[in-house]
Amino acid sequence: MRFDALRAWIGCPAVFVVLCALWVAPVFAIAPTVMEAEPDNGATGVDPALRQIKIVFDQDMETWGGLSVCGGGETFPALVGRPRWADKRTFIMTVRLRPEHDYKFSINCPAAMNFKSAAGESATPYPISFRTARSDGGGEASVAELNAAAVEVLREMIDQQYSYRDRLGLDWDELFKDHTPLMADAKTPKRFAQIAGVMLANAQDKHIWLVVEGEHIPSFVRPMTPNANAQLLPTLVPGWQQQNDIVYTGMFEDGIGYVRIDSWSTNDARGYEPVYRLIGGRPEMKGLIIDVRFNGGGSETLAQDLAGCFVDGPVIYAKNVYRDPASDSGFTEVFERMLEPNIGRPKFGGKVAVLSGPVVMSSCEAFVLMMKQAPKAEVFGSATQGCSGNPRGYDLGNGVTVFLPSWKSMLPDGTEFEGVGVEPDVEVAAGRQDFEAGDPVLEAGLKYLRE
Question: What does the alpha-carbon distance between residue 424 and residue 339 come to, in Å, rounded to a whole number?
């Protein structure tokens, strides 16, 4: 097994990986080498309580991009949290070691050379083998010890990896002071996660949650009321059909199509085929309504696939920065998220009305931003939630995994919209009572398409 680039851990965006592959280092660049390792190659009697493996290079490294820690199986150290750069030359892996055990891995290897200098030169492979000593404790760590270590990892991940850590100006020192004794005394991983969830709820971030043995344990919960009436819609849209669990379609008498998409779920990508059939199978269709007012997100790639049917060329629909504690700013450079035409799907050149509102979040907010770039599309309704974090999981080492947002998402002009939302092109002010017998958002979209 080879942890090639550790991309699953650091979430290197596809566009950056491509740039890494195409960029050519200057001919005078010198390959970086490992100057120091703790424990180093050949070490014996290593304390099994060692928490961090440290690798120090002889020059500044590319701290955002691919990494290659080669190895696997029983001899690969069990990772806790996420490997990180402590600074531009120091790479840290938090681990959980066993006593009297042989370990080995390699920093870069012939098959994977993604540790690179700031100049883009791959580091010389550096294999490391070591053996741990007998444990003074004479056995496995206690629940209390695992919990104490998990609290340390959780705090480190909040400080080093959570992109919105400072958004609300929280006093994290005080929060950890109040909740650490409770987490340390938790008798089960689930109880630890529940207490941690209460603490993390202060961040008011729906993209923070915890997982214990497959069970999802949320932190912040804030139900949103949609600006629509799901029970009434089938009576307002002629030809209403429920295609599957997430897609509904209809057709108005004057040739305006309707599609409601409730999720960008990857559970069954074929579930979106009715949408493409509607777009490509009705050439006489004069306009299209895309209703995402019940959509809480999912796969941004699936959203791109559909939005790509409405643009003529590449367009920037959003920007973002990733957390990078080794950089001077604490974040990477700004990445531009591009929408490309979907040449494998039918193109729709007519007018489109996108219906949006307060339930819309995450990847569906990205979809709304994509459709704002379509030349004949307008967005109707009210602002989205403003919740887009691209969360990643971190193993705390005690049976609990915490998921934390890794980026700050922005509008195309660079404005952050976390906690603010994406505004519609046409705001439709309406209260719950307005949806008892009608749908003013749907009506506004129809008016636009009929003009």
Answer: 19
